[in-house]
Amino acid sequence: MADLLVVGSVALDSVETPFGKVHEVLGGSATYFSYSASFFTQVRVVATVGEDFPGAHLRLLGDRGVDLDGLKTSKGKTFRWVGQYGYDLNEAKTLDTQLNVLAEFKPALGDGLRRTPFLFLANIDPDLQRDVLRQMKERPRLVALDTMNFWIQGKQEALRRVLADVDVVTINDGEARQLAGEPNLIRAARAIASMGPRTVVVKRGEYGALMLTDGAFFFVPAYPLESVYDPTGAGDTFAGGFMGYLAAQERIDAAAMRRAVVYGSVMASFTVEDFSLKRLTRLRPADIADRYTAFHDLIRLDGE
Amino acid sequence: MADLLVVGSVALDSVETPFGKVHEVLGGSATYFSYSASFFTQVRVVATVGEDFPGAHLRLLGDRGVDLDGLKTSKGKTFRWVGQYGYDLNEAKTLDTQLNVLAEFKPALGDGLRRTPFLFLANIDPDLQRDVLRQMKERPRLVALDTMNFWIQGKQEALRRVLADVDVVTINDGEARQLAGEPNLIRAARAIASMGPRTVVVKRGEYGALMLTDGAFFFVPAYPLESVYDPTGAGDTFAGGFMGYLAAQERIDAAAMRRAVVYGSVMASFTVEDFSLKRLTRLRPADIADRYTAFHDLIRLDGE
């Protein structure tokens, strides 16, 4: 079990889906990621919140053993996101973004964090992602990066620079096509791998995920849920399960990577069952094991 | 290896996709189905064509050992379909349908066909599907049915009547939602199973297929093709591989059903690589075995 560092956002989200509505609940990429990964390994968070950030949210993460020494409280208000989903839960509509303290976020890693062996660069400005990578005293064993259309469109050069230096990129299907400039998803994944990352994980919402690693594809479906309440955070929860599982392994080979994709899918499948981190906070390790087995049953071809 | 009977259409298709265009080429549900299934078992076709139907097409099927005794040449012209696909190859736009001899199609099974142990009722009027089922002297070991939005909308009562009497239904995802009146695909599949069929196979185009059988789900991705030329016939080719494989098995259990879904996916993955049956006519049994292994590699979680 090795330490896992995440640099990303901690946010207050207001979300409306066809199944309900929540106002300024706990959200943010580093939040979902760290909570999810905490079931597998020791996680440390580097992020920033405003003075208005509720202490109860910090306790929620602290209770899971998440190390919050790198979470800085800055003057001002916490980052806020307001989003809406229609019946096509694959597509979020951003109604409002208030960057607040996130606008000035310049992640500075304390000495204790500069040798963390597993690093997740959540979706932030690619120049900041690159800066974090440079602060590391030793090349981590595994560096993964997430990004989004905003950076692909606005800072693609910077994004490509940092992509060249990471091992894994997680990206959704539309963004993969956009980044590669290629409508065929299979070609798009190969094109992104050629930009640097040995492993490309494409998140496809209700259609699951696919991984291209060392030239070989692996597909996992989404868990067949009868009720999906809110997909917010699913991608970061996925990444948390994926990286958390790998950080806990002695050996990271192709088989471990495949299991990691399934653990990522397992964790994401819980997140979408309720708003914010509600479902995750009710989660027991046995639930994770059970759903992993259920996932295996969904895709296994041999035996009974 | 047991006999497999298909009742469906033989057509002349004109298709345009972003990758090319063909005029009045061989098509039709019974055509794709029987050609695909012929790699696994003995297939017999009940269908109708007009006097204009090219003999070369018949020879193509005959050369694969497909029994065409039930293919009737009627006075008039062969059924024609004109369709177009945009870059979203999941959605066909029908530009023209000329039913011609298909308008008067009343499948009459000769004595030799009334005891065929495997039966596929391709997408035709559900009343005709039911009539074929009634002509069987013995209940076949396995009856599968395909349908489409046209019948779901226009003849749902008749469709539900025949659904109650079949073992397997193959249906695409949009049609599954429409038939069940339920946007969640997992609930939709369960709702369709509750209408009668023990097995529901949902075809999802580029997202693969899922099967619900005896309450358990199984997911298979689409083969990761870098070039898809024409999806026409993919669903019927899938059904041909699925039913053909099962007809060749001694025992039809859950594991055989899963393998059948993969063989269906294998066959469909070839069909979409070229227009009409072009890719299938170049197919060797070794290609099928190789792609089956490749499919297994795409989804296997354990081992190397």
Number of helices of chain A: 11
Which strand-content bin applies to the residues of chain A? 25-35%
Write down the overall mean pLDDT of chain A: 96
CATH superfamily membership of chain A: Ribokinase
| First-last Cα distance of chain A | 33 Å
User: How many domains is the backbone of chain A divided into?
Assistant: 1
Notes on the structure:
The structure is a homodimer of 304-residue chains. With 304 residues, the first copy, chain A, is α/β, with parallel strands linked by helices. Chain A has a single domain, classed as UDP-N-acetylmuramoyl-L-alanine:D-glutamate ligase, CATH 3.40.1190.20. Chain A contains eleven helices and 13 strands. A nine-stranded mixed beta sheet of chain A has the order 5-4-1-8-9-10-11-12-13, with helices on both faces. In chain A, a hairpin with a 2-residue loop joins strand 2 and strand 3. In chain A, helix 6 crosses helix 7 and helix 8 runs antiparallel to helix 9. The longest helix of chain A has 18 residues. The mean pLDDT of chain A is 96. At the A-B interface, helix 7, strand 13, helix 9 and helix 11 of A face helix 7, strand 13, helix 9 and helix 11 of B.
Structural features:
homodimer; 304 residues; alpha/beta; UDP-N-acetylmuramoyl-L-alanine:D-glutamate ligase; nine-stranded mixed beta sheet; four-stranded mixed beta sheet; 11 helices; 36% helix; globular
